[in-house]
Amino acid sequence: MARRPEVFVRPLSMEEGRRLQRITRTAKDPIKLRRAIVVMMSGQGQSVPDITSLMQVGDDYVRDVIHAFNERGFDALDPKWSGGRPPAISERVRERICLIAKTVPAEWGIAGMSTWSLRTLAEHLIARGVVAAISREHLRRILRKGGVSWQTTTTWKASTDPHFIAKMRRVLKLYDSPPADGRVICVDELGPLNLLPRKGKRWRPQGSPARLRATYHRYDGVMQMIAALDLATGKLFYRIRKRKRWREFLSFLKTLRARWPGEKLHVIMDNYSPHKHREVRAWAAANDVELVFLPTYGSWLNWIESEFAALRYYALNGTDHRSHAEQNAAIGAYVRWRNAQARPKTNFAASSPIRSWTSYPAKVA
Fold it and tell me: Which residues form the Tc1-like transposase DDE domain (predicted)?
C-alpha cells in the first residue's frame, strides 16, 4: 500500500502564529483547543504521524483539520454544531404538558387519585392525545425544564380579622418606636412540653445517624412554658407550669410588672382566651399594663415566635429527657446562655412586603 502524501498547514504569518498561541492558552472549548494545537504543530513542521501520536487522534482527523484551516482560516477552528435531531415534542405541547401537570386528576374526572405520578400523567397525556408516546424520564425532563417540580402541599390560615391592618400597624409601631416612658414585651406560651423523644440533627459519621428510642407513651403528663421577650434588652424571661390558664398567665404578668416598676408595659400577645379574661384585663388596667392583641391568625407578627423556634432547635430537638426536671434544666441552661448573648431587638421585618400593605391580601403565602 502506497504511503499517503504528507499534509502541512500553509505558511503562517507572525500574527497568525501569535493568535494560535493565544488560543492554545485561553480556549475553553476543548474542540477549538485541540484543533488549534494540531494547526500549530503542523505549522512547526511536525508530520501527521507525529501529531496523531502526541494528540491521540486519527490520521484522518489531523488531515481534515489541516485542510479545513488551509481553506477557511481561523473559522475552521470553531466547532459548527448541527444542533442534533429536532425535538419530537414541540414547545407548545411542552407548555401544555406543564399546565396539565399543575392540575389534579380530579379536575379531569379521574376518581380516587389526588395527585399525578409520572406514570399516570404519561398515560393521561397519551389518552388525551396530547402526545403519541412519552417515557417517564422524558416527561420528567420536560417538567424540570418547564420549572415544574414535585413539592409538598402547604397550608395557609387566612385572617378574618376586619381590623388586621390597624392591629398590625400598632404592633409594628411599637417595634419600630418603643415609647420612651415604657417597655415593649412580647408574650406567648410554648407547649405542651412532653417527654417524648424529639427528632433533631447533629454531626455524625456518614451513614451512622444518632438513634433515639421510639415510644408512644407520655409519662408524667405535660408542662407548659410561658415566656416574655423584652425588646429593650433582647432577653427572655419564662416560667414553666403544669397548666396555662388565666391564673398562671396573670401570675406571670405580675412577675413582669414587679421586674420593671415605674414603667408602662406594652404586652404584645395573641388572642388566646386566658389573655382576654376579665380578671386579666381588670388587673392590667389598674397596673399600667397595655394589652396589645395581635390580629386574628397573625401570631407570626409576635417577635417571640422566632425565639421559640431557636429554643426548640437548640434545647429540645434531638433529646430524650426522662423527667420534666431534666428537661426544664435543659431549657433553663439554654435561656441563660441565650440571655448572655442577647442584644436589643430592632428592625423587625424591615424589608418585608407587610410594610406596604394597605389591605389584607387574598393570598399571603
Answer: 183-322
